[in-house]
Write a structure and sequence with these properties.
It comes from Macroventuria anomochaeta. The protein is α/β, with parallel strands linked by helices. It is 51% helix and 11% strand. The chain has 4 domains: 73 residues, no CATH class; 71 residues, Arc Repressor Mutant, subunit A; 64 residues, no CATH class; 183 residues, Rossmann fold, CATH 3.40.50. It has 20 helices and 11 strands. It starts with 5 loop residues before the first helix and ends with a strand. 32% of the residues are buried. The structure holds S-adenosylmethionine (SAM).
């Protein structure tokens, strides 16, 4: 009997695993997956259905492999399209998704009139976007698909798309140039794709602190991540019931503290960030939580001003900084720590390659390259974290919750 080829093998896996996902969706009466405008905006399978989620991940990995084998390597390399990103930037910048009614359609002429753009340019971008299921043509007019509907309905995703296309994309374009220009030197925020793309000798945060519009855009996108990421992992990865005061360092306008205070009625949170950023905070905190969440302008590299708190919480902070700067941040807290105080880090921990599904690993590794491009920083493996923390002080004891929360709890001895 002939040995099955890889493409036949992949087709079999895809068929078997797709059936697992499809059976689950049907048997639970969930909306079927579709690009129609009224289709579900996310795959409606909960994380708790682990076998189904594993099948979903396998279909994603195998369809990509089959897709690329079917194209062949030469075509694959020729067709990694940056135009896909241009489409998202175009739709985001000109608010196209918000102009088109959900239950109707708009002609290209109407879109040109509403945006002031040339109709030929609208057509050329949207017609290509449609090949990515991003809008569709109905009776020669532009109508929504489920993908374009996300950009109409989900402010969080729109804000992430804005950061992605307006800040990260130009920085990526200059990252290899930065690696070449500054090779042989340790990475610093001032020598990155971001700094070259913006023609500045400053790092991103220093640059944004002089540009309120850009800082606001960044803060909006961080709010978008906070709204779309599952914060429940941070809630379960550490025992918040045994503590009462939390300093949310680099906590922006307070999205994490709001979740914490909501989940734990005895918790008091102090959110620290740049002055402009925390200024937004009080108006965003729901009235019933206001007595337990306060805001304070504080630079995390300066000695910590809140002395003796139970927890200093850092979510999505350390991955913005190189090892040397992370050690400085940890050390700037040491004088404020009482014995038994916790520094709780909620960041990614890079898995050993090939342990997590390729799609999840690709997302983590993309974030790693984003950190390189914007900050000259990186995502870290567990061993990298331990080295960095030990470097800051041998008095730090490291406890790691492991996946899925990946919370690192550092206790001051
Ligand atoms: C990636 S965001 C994370 C925000 C928040 N912790 C979350 O998880 O949604 C990083 C935050 O660090 C803040 N930040 C950067 N440098 C800082 C500094 N030197 N001192 C205080 N905050 C800083 C930024 O303004 C931003 O709000």
């Amino acid at each position: 009997m002939a040995i099955p080829t890889r493409i036949a093998e992949l087709a079999d896996i895809i068929a078997t695993k797709t059936k697992i996902v499809d059976d689950y969706i049907r048997s639970h009466d969930l909306p079927s997956l579709s690009f129609e405008a009224n289709g579900s905006l996310a795959v409606p399978v909960p994380e708790s259905a682990t076998e189904v989620i594993e099948a979903q991940h396998e279909v994603i990995a195998c369809t990509q492999e089959l897709n690329e084998l079917m194209k062949g390597p030469t075509e694959v390399l020729k067709t990694r399209f940056v135009a896909d990103i241009l489409e998202i930037q175009f739709v985001q910048r000109f608010g196209i998704a918000k102009l088109i009614p959900l239950d109707g359609a708009m002609s290209y002429e109407e879109l040109a009139a509403a945006t002031g753009l040339d109709m030929i340019d609208i057509k050329r971008v949207l017609k290509r976007a449609m090949l990515n299921h991003f809008f569709q043509e109905k009776d020669c007019k532009v109508a929504h698909t489920s993908t374009s509907r996300v950009m109409q309905e989900n402010e969080a995703v729109t804000n992430i798309a804005e950061l992605f296309t307006e800040e990260i994309w130009p920085s990526f374009a200059k990252t290899v140039e930065a690696l070449d220009r500054f090779k042989g030197r340790p990475h610093v925020p001032e020598e990155t794709g971001f700094s070259i793309a913006n023609n500045t000798p400053k790092g991103m945060y220093a640059f944004f602190s002089e540009s309120p519009v850009r800082m606001e855009r960044f803060a909006r996108a961080m709010g978008g991540f906070a709204a779309t990421e599952d914060f429940s992992l941070a809630l379960t990865g550490f025992d918040w019931t045994k503590v009462s005061t939390v300093v949310d360092v680099g906590g922006a306008w307070g999205p994490c503290s709001i979740e914490l205070a909501r989940a734990f009625p005895d918790l008091k949170c102090i959110v620290q960030d740049f002055e402009d950023v925390v200024a937004e905070g009080p108006s965003k905190v729901p009235a019933e939580l206001r007595s337990r969440i306060s805001f304070e302008a504080h630079n995390m590299f300066d000695p910590q001003t809140v002395v003796g708190a139970d927890v200093y919480f850092f979510r999505a902070i350390f991955h913005n900084w190189s090892d040397v700067r992370c050690v400085e941040i940890l050390r700037s807290h040491m004088d404020a720590l009482k014995p038994g105080a916790h520094i709780v880090i909620n960041d990614k921990v890079l898995a050993t390659p090939k342990v997590s599904p390729p799609w999840a690993e690709k997302k983590s590794r993309t974030m790693d390259l984003t950190m390189l491009a914007l900050f000259g920083s990186r995502e870290r493996t567990y061993e990298d974290w331990v080295d960095l923390i030990r470097e800051a002080s041998p008095r730090f004891q490291v406890n790691y919750a492991g996946p899925p929360s990946h919370i690192i709890d550092i206790v001051w001895q």
